[in-house]
Amino acid sequence: MAYASFDFETHLSKRAEYAPRIASGSWAEWNGLVTDPPSPGAIGLRAESVAKFRELLSRPDLTLVNQFFAFDIAVMLEDAYRAQDEAHTRGVDTIEGEVSGAYGRVPAFVRTVWDALRAGRFVGVDVCQQLIDVAHGRLDLREHHGYGLANIARWNGIECEDKEETWRLYYSQLAEISPEYWPEDARKYVLLDADLPLRILSKQLEENQRWIESYGHPVLHEAPAQTWAQTALYLVSAHGVRTNKARVEALRTKTTEHIASIQGRLQAAGLVRADGSKDTKAAKARVKAAFEAQGKDVPLTVAAKGRKAKKEFVPQISTEEDTMILSGDPLLVDYADYSSSNTLLTRVEDLADGYELPLNVEFTSIRATGRTSARKPRAPHKGVQSQNDGQGSGVRECREPREGCAFLWADFEAAEMHTLAQNCKDEVGYSRLGDLLLEGVDPHAYFAGVARLGLTGTPKEIADSVLSRDDKKAMRGWAKPYNFGKPGGMGNDKFRIFSRKQYGVTFSEAEAKHYGELWFRSFPEVKELHGIVKRLLGRKDTCTVRIKRGGFVAGGKHFPAACNFFFQAPAAAGVKASLCHVLYECYADPDSPLFGFRVWNLVHDELVLEGPIGRMHDAGERLRAIMEREFNFYTPSFPTRVEVIAGNVWSKEAKPVYGADGRLGLWIYEDYLAEKASKAVKKAA
After folding, report:
1. Domain 2-221 belongs to what topology?
2. Model confidence over 269-302: pLDDT tens digits?
3. What value does the mean pLDDT take over residues 422-437?
4. CATH topology of domain 396-415+571-684
5. Residue-wise DSSP of 607-650
């Protein structure tokens, strides 16, 4: 197989501009033979480099290589849109023409790029390295250093000086100057961008071959798909979302008042100072007293993975939220609430930046768990981490769609329960949980009925009995911590914290143990799956896990992490595949009702889109079909379903709304609030 590297230098980004204008580009080729080095690199200004990129992409024998290819692909796509717009402004058509369809038209080259992504013709050496590092169990240690070219080169035994970052910011000033007249350091910088990815890839392919020879399976088979996912997530980052000023300011007022209501009690106890700052020394002393009174060890802090510090780590008394919850001291629980409420207030301040320009979120596409993660964007962009808004915090409802648009979102029904069931069947031959899912039995209602209410009968009879109760929501909520916590090998203390933090359900030590035993009796296949993990561990602290369906490999896994990997990794893969194929139709298929929609958020197993109000039903049906097709590749024995909702506000309270014609309509947030207020008045009366 032949390879070509390609890298663009661009003008500086402005806020909310994730695909700035191209200034220049560099490229090199390699025939794929370990004995041969890459060809000498070349540099071109915008017109020449864009033409070269198109020429390389037109050669089906080539795989294109780079580090963080997502940026360069986004830049190239935006350049094609810009060229098309400029051509239309002049009243002429572009050379490559357009692809037209029922819902619009798209530059033909944009379609070509998306087809190449779908065909697996883009590979990022950062993605390859992350997959290798996950397999070795060292991703958590290395991601703190960053997956820049220089680091990746060194990790692969390639001598490389630190790239001088100063030139990266000044290529816009060279955009009109022929590269032959550039300063030598400026030329050297971009030529390294062309040369290093190919030399790194050569080493990575050798590592992949060693895995095949040693273990009988590869680790880089997912690299093209993961590069596509990285690109898709970057485009999600680029779109962003705006916020509603009235709702943001109301949340600011509510949060400020709640902080004030707690602060007085904490100040009286000496845990908060007069200026509102926390007295951590006093908090640690109270933690120590609380745990000693219970006859328990006082929780201590642990060093972060990959910690980089000059001083030796010294454990301190923990003041984390988990510790405060386990302390049993109401004031320490208030202290944790005070901390989290101040964190919420900071997030509200960030939301206020989205009134005019959109807020963005940035994603990490590969984590050691197989999942993605999100973070606040780096300057010059502004935004919030949007994968965890906090249960019932009101942050989610602060977003609003652009004019003429509405939100369309879809999530999988119990995604990780389906991948857990599938992996139990693949590994131990059966799954009672999977049988429940196939029969349409609600697992939460079923376990609540069996464990908490002691009901007997068929699983469906038990679940239906619980679902007929007035307190069915509370019953299902009681069972969720077990169904989502126990499969991951969670111990009772961690389980109690998890239950309290995620679901607001408090269990005593005895209850956690008792109902945990009942849960494993209800789903014995999970205990057998845990037995496989224990055998993999043997007498070691960690093990390497490989999942049969998809071939995901992860090393350095302790018991809980290994248990989680069996269902988290395939679920994440199904969600990423769904995102990629949804975005293909959003950007490149004008015959799809999704064309012109944009995904602006991914929350673990949920995609959130924005698009024309009048197309919600057709777009929603297409969204459902793609997501179920892609995810159920990983769960063929226990296929899951997707629920689609359209609304003027993205909210956990939203429900699908269908008209008399059976077509999906809009859930209206203001109508929900009015109905909620009316019910409160009637209840008070």
Report:
1. Nucleotidyltransferase; domain 5 (3.30.420)
2. 999 999 999 999 999 999 999 999 999 889 888 7
3. 96
4. Alpha-Beta Plaits (3.30.70)
5. EEEEEEGGGHHHHHHHHHHHHHHHHTTS-TTS---EEEEEESS-
